[in-house]
Amino acid sequence: MADTAYPRPQLVREHWQSLNGQWKFTFDSEKKYTHPSNPIQWTHDITVPFPPESQASGVGDRGFHRACWYQNEFDIVPQGERVLLHFGAVDYRAVVWVNGHRVTEHEGGHSSFYADITNALGEQSRHTVTVFVEDDPLDLAKPRGKQDWQLEPHSIWYPRTTGIWQAVWLERVPRTYIQRLRWTPHFEGFEIGCEAFIAGDLEDDLSVEVKIRHGQKMLADDHYKVIGGEAHRKIALSDPGIDDSRNELLWSPEHPTLLDVDVTLWHEDQVIDKIKSYTALRSVNINRDRFMLNGRPYHLKLVLDQGYWPDTLLSAPSDAALRKDVELAKAMGFNGVRKHQKIEDPRYLYWADRLGLLVWEEMPSSYRFTPQAINRMVREWSEVIERDYSHPCIIVWVAFNESWGVPNLTSTQAHRNAVEALYHLTRTFDSTRPVIGNDGWEASATDLLGIHDYDGDPERIAARYSSKVTTQELFDRRRPGGRILTLDGYPHRGQPIILTEFGGITYAKQPEPGVKNVWGYSLADSDQEFLSIYRRLLEVINEAPMFSGFCYTQFADTFQEANGLLTADRSPKLPLSDIYAATRNVKPNAKMQYGI
């Protein structure tokens, strides 16, 4: 990841230092070492933040390894302030030492964490950070998403990711500092909810100043007293009234208007801390059977995105690669993505915010049902929602997918309880966005009803979801895999119906090196056949009045799954203009706009 890309784009400070780059590394499956004071035999140099399974890391070892160690040196001289050490994501359990002092421990492979390392630094300028990572490749009771538990990737699962896979960085902060911000748009009142959380030495007479701008225009300049380390306010903006003027301030994929924010922490009349942030004014909700964006029905045109790259796996090759993925999704005619079984890097969410792309965020699954698995999932999902809550691009939270980790929903009450509990917990943490309890089938507690249907025949799809078919008939039938759409006691109550997985047309135009057997749901043998099937399938789905939207599988080829619209290196399999026209169901000779 490029060192110039600030890793936490909604809370930016001037003084920070990237620790990405060359680290010492060794596997330790036998757990021979217990502390950095032990003489550790370093076997590799590794390029952080790329996982050791990836070629870009310089290690490229995809075997089974239960544990590993990292070590690096950095220079910093504390000058009376605090120094924080941040990790974007480490899979799965990490223990961190600085200069031999244990500074933090974290469990969860997809959420961020940090440590205040000030007391471990001492007087010297050169320091050592050591990280122990434990990640059992065979443990199916931890959230692991698409990481395979078999040695060779099979079916719809991919190579594992061990250890550090997002940015590592240092940050200087004052003794008393702004720890966290939380932005909540309130579209109905043209208000922005602002919550500031202060950490460190909590002095009396602290206050925060919040300035919100749209371009050069000042929208708010407010001052709030900090009470108990927190400040909570709704900031009312002047409502322009008429839609044309209102739309200039509203965020949408078509007009991704962001509001720049400066937040200053004061102690009496002295400035203590300054950060830059951004927010947006937009609303997402459900009205009868329609998904609503900014108070209007909005048809979702999503693409399923696994978020893998050939040489870097779950890690992004660079910040530019993240931006390009957002641009390519828009260039292919989609207004959003469903990030599948991955919690994406905050830099991706930044580009989705900045360029205008809706995001469904989905909790990576575990594949065994145990109390430990649910405990892990609740803890990590809670951290993820807290981290990503303020991104305007995120419009839906998805707790479970296709009953993974809860396989007996039709017969075991505990499995049902888990889905319903995660649904209500998510709604508790965030009441402003729709939540899907279990996507695909066997739905119970949910705000949207997602259907997965990989029938490759457009005419059968057209007949199955035609205007002649009532919702009662639809929900009385079985879907692929012999699954029911809703559980007993949870009939369809009018929620929007979205075809959240379909397509999966395999066209191995440029198979990934080393992949022996490509896989998909249906097959095309030429550009012409691929475009013909895709065009007809999207025509059917776009015109089905039953649907409030769709999510096509998938964005790019991912290892053995050659069913992407793009190859693994993000080369379009068809001209982008043709994909755009088909996605948007633009008839021949109609005017359209596309581009990246």
Set down the secondary structure blueprint.
Layout lengths: L15 E3 L2 E7 L16 E5 L18 E9 L6 E6 L2 E2 L1 E6 L2 E7 L5 E4 L1 H4 L4 E9 L28 E2 L3 E6 L2 E11 L4 E10 L5 E9 L2 E9 L4 E7 L6 H5 L11 E9 L2 E10 L4 E4 L2 E4 L2 E2 L2 E6 L13 H13 L4 E4 L6 H10 L2 E5 L8 H18 L5 E8 L11 H17 L5 E5 L9 E4 L5 H7 L6 H6 L1 E2 L3 E2 L12 E7 L1 E2 L15 E2 L3 H17 L3 E7 L22 H8 L13
Parallel strand pairs: 23-24, 23-34, 24-25, 25-26, 26-27, 28-31, 31-34, 32-33
Antiparallel strand pairs: 1-12, 2-3, 2-4, 4-10, 5-9, 5-12, 6-11, 7-8, 7-10, 13-14, 14-17, 15-16, 15-18, 18-19, 20-21, 21-22, 29-30
Helix pairs in contact: 3-4, 5-6, 7-9, 9-10
Keywords: Hydrolase
InterPro entries: Beta-gal/glucu_dom_sf, Beta-mannosidase-like_N2, Galactose-bd-like_sf, GH, GH2_Domain-Containing, Glyco_hydro_2_cat, Ig-like_GH2
Pfam families: Glyco_hydro_2, Glyco_hydro_2_C, Glyco_hydro_2_N2
Overall description:
The chain is an alpha+beta fold and about 600 residues long. It folds into three domains: about 15-175, Sandwich (Jelly Rolls), CATH 2.60.120.260; about 175-280, Immunoglobulin-like, CATH 2.60.40; about 300-585, Glycosidases (TIM Barrel). About 20% of the residues lie in helices and about 35% in strands. The strands form nine sheets. The protein has an eight-stranded parallel sheet with strand order 27-26-25-24-23-34-31-28. Strands 3-2-4-10-7-8 form a six-stranded antiparallel sheet, with no helix packed on it. It starts with 15 loop residues before the first strand and ends in a 13-residue tail after the last helix. The relative contact order is 0.10. Residues about 590-595 have low confidence and may be disordered.
